[in-house]
């Protein structure tokens, strides 16, 4: 099982009901709207002002931008993180994951880019010793992909399996959208086809290295 060197950021637990639940949702929806409309990561104070909620109240729900963005991403990708498949074909299971996630990537692209932006910003501040908030730590894709490649794992040496796991984590996420859309100007559909092509190429390479004849999915 994969192990990360850092603890993943977990979203604040939303209140169950009542005024507190409504306030939490209002602040979260406001943050998502600001990101989508203006392309920048709002501060907790900005969300409070836009929502007409006191700063003190807002900070009780979201003590930092990291907590706020973690909640935004959990709201955007929560259903994907709970996906489970009993498909015994590893390649098909990887395809299922990608195909079920693509619509969420398109719908919440602005929010996912914002999360990546915050991670990069905090990386620079942390290196300079200037980071003054709890850092936003990404990595839920590690567990998601581990489940996807589970049927392939017995066919490979541990080192090859780990390399495939690492490589797929580069292909699965918002990063291919950033590169292929911003640099190449590709449309969403072309980004998706290219990401699947890369995933297949990586699986093929891992199987060849393990002396296993690749078996294509029904869709390829």
UniProtKB/TrEMBL annotation:
Residues 43-62 bind DNA. Residues 21-80 form the HTH tetR-type domain. Pfam families: TetR_N. Keywords: DNA-binding. This is TetR/AcrR family transcriptional regulator. The lineage of its organism: Bacteria, Pseudomonadati, Pseudomonadota, Betaproteobacteria, Burkholderiales.
């Amino acid at each position: 099982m994969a192990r990360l060197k850092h603890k993943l950021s977990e979203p604040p637990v939303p209140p169950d009901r009542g005024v507190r639940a409504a306030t939490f949702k209002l602040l979260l929806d406001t943050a998502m709207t600001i990101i989508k409309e203006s392309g920048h990561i709002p501060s907790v104070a900005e969300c409070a002002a836009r929502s007409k909620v006191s700063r003190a109240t807002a900070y009780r729900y979201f003590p930092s931008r990291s907590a706020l963005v973690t909640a935004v991403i959990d709201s955007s990708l929560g259903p994907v993180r709970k996906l489970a498949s009993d498909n015994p074909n590893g390649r098909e299971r990887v395809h299922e994951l990608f195909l079920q996630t693509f619509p969420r990537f398109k719908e919440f692209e602005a929010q996912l880019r914002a999360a990546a932006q915050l991670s990069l910003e905090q990386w620079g501040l942390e290196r300079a010793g200037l980071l003054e908030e709890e850092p936003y730590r990404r990595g839920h894709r590690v567990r998601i992909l581990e489940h996807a490649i589970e049927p392939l794992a017995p066919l490979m040496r541990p080192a090859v399996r780990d390399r495939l796991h690492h490589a797929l984590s580069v292909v699965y996420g918002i990063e291919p959208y950033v590169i292929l859309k911003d640099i190449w100007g590709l449309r969403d559909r072309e980004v998706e086809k290219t990401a699947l092509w890369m995933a297949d190429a990586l699986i093929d390479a891992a199987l060849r290295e393990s002396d296993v004849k690749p078996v294509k999915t029904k869709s390829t």
